[in-house]
User: Which sequence fits this backbone?
């Protein structure tokens, strides 16, 4: 088994959705049925990933040149949201197939996002994550991301906004 990394394209849309459903399914037991359906609708919707592919750089971890086992999106500054300032770039949907956890895929994808942000002259990179995503929080903090503040609950859970000055 050989894991390689490349940038994602619109041609990867179905694989991105498949990975999202697979990587987020373990959280189903930590959410209410209603919140799980809401998350499932988001990650199985073409528009979610079409928008991200149009506005960001998508990084993928691929096994044996076929299945997508990891993904992360780096959205450049100039794309503000209710969470992110226009001066910030931010990372979205870092996801790893549960069968491939612990192999450094998430770490590599985050490193790729940080490297791309630095190459692009970004000065601040941000992300948000939830209380129920303990492994992700630990990983982000190992890169130096610091919690800026708690944000409004999503999916009935506490979330934090994290920031890293580059």
Assistant:
């Amino acid at each position: 088994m050989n894991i390689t990394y490349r940038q994602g394209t619109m041609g990867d849309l179905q694989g991105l959705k498949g990975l999202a459903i697979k990587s987020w399914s373990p959280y189903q037991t930590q959410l209410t049925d209603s919140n799980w359906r809401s998350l499932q609708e988001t990650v199985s919707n073409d528009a979610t990933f079409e928008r991200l592919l149009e506005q960001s750089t998508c990084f993928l971890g691929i096994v044996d040149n076929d299945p997508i086992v990891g993904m992360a999106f780096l959205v450049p500054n100039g794309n503000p949201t209710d969470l992110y300032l226009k001066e910030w770039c931010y990372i979205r949907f870092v996801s790893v197939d549960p069968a491939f956890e612990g192999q450094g895929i998430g770490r590599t994808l985050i490193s790729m996002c940080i490297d791309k942000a630095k190459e692009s002259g970004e000065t601040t990179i941000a992300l948000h994550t939830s209380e129920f995503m303990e492994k992700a929080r630990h990983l982000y903090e190992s890169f130096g991301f610091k919690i800026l503040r708690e944000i409004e609950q999503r999916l009935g859970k506490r979330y934090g906004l994290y920031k890293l000055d580059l």
